């Protein structure tokens, strides 16, 4: 079995069309068919089924796909690491980040990194925690940066917290709560809350914290985008609890205000995570050293 067969299988599993796969791989359709047939012979199982004019992965194909991706990604990572061992003037820094971390915290750190290593390509994938975990499992990224309330298997992954993030309650400047000297959580429970949907990790964290304080929020508006939540608050739809990192600019400019809260601390750690048996590339190690330096400055 060679790597080309695996790359052909992965490409075809994504598009499920022989013609499109051939175009992506810059080869002929018969060549794609021969590679898949040879791979199926190697594995002694069918990976695809054709039903009518459509192509489908078999159960065996679905099971094999993450293994094929791991193998291909691991080989690519090995090549990258070997090149970077000799020369940090080339290569790629590839990692995943949750939304508020990738959008509001890491760009400034990436700017520092880019200034030091201008020729390193940077690939930051911002997506849901579930998809990030899948990327890490398949070696699609070297490491993740996300909040510490997202559970991980600590027997398999190494995690280190390098910064704390504080959730703040925000309102438009004209809101009555913004005019008070101090508020309690009980002052908020009858307000309209703009929140992410139930499946969001941030929503789960917020519900858990409010529940521990005995606060039940009944009037909510669900908005899946953090930017949408901020704009909703700015335009008077309600109030929200969001990362302090995410609203610094709006608070500084006066578009939003932080509701003054008495004895309330909603805090979560921000950490990087990678496989314990992972050989990180020099590019990744340099960026993680930058994150650790930020922890010491905090």
TrEMBL record:
Entry superkingdom: Bacteria
Protein family per UniProt: Belongs to the LysR transcriptional regulatory family.
Domain HTH lysR-type: 1-58
PANTHER family: HTH-TYPE TRANSCRIPTIONAL REGULATOR, HTH-TYPE TRANSCRIPTIONAL REGULATOR CYSL
Coiled coil spans: none
Name listed for the protein in its UniProt record: LysR family transcriptional regulator
Entry GO MF terms: DNA-binding transcription factor activity; transcription cis-regulatory region binding
Source organism (scientific name): Paenibacillus dendritiformis C454
Gene3D superfamilies: 3.40.190.290, Winged helix-like DNA-binding domain superfamily/Winged helix DNA-binding domain
Pfam families recorded: HTH_1, LysR_substrate
Keywords: DNA-binding, Transcription, Transcription regulation
